[in-house]
Write a structure and sequence with these properties.
The protein has two helices and five strands; from the N terminus they run E-E-E-H-E-E-H. It has helices at residues 71-88, 134-137, and strands at residues 20-33, 40-48, 58-63, 107-114, 125-128. A hairpin with a 6-residue loop joins strand 1 and strand 2. By secondary structure, the chain is an alpha+beta fold.
Amino acid sequence: MSFIQINLSDVKEAVAAPEDIYSLAIVDVEGYIKEETKNYVLRCRIAFVDHQGEYNNINHFMSMPGENDDADKAEMKKLFIKRFLTVIGIQYEQSEGFEQDDLMGTNFTCAVQQDEPTDDGTVYNSLILPRLELEEAA
């Protein structure tokens, strides 16, 4: 075996960002079927534009309404999807939907919060999606 020359002295784990408003970018989009519900889910991996490597990426999940969702749950899912698309500035057709490929590479500004620590003490961030304006909500 040969010796691999690499400087690891400045490598550190990324941490959760403090609650604030940040410039963000969607750096990965993955769609999959959730096994338990059979619903289609989009996972957007979101990076901090000005703090890459310093703060953990945010995973934002959008669960599409499915045939097993009751009416209230389906409407709530659609509301959260519409809030996210509005914040990131993605065009959508009110009655048709949106193009999944348009999400990738989108830059936007959004408030970020720290979530409760997990059992192992890890803290993650999530987006704070503002309520829709009254005319947008209708």
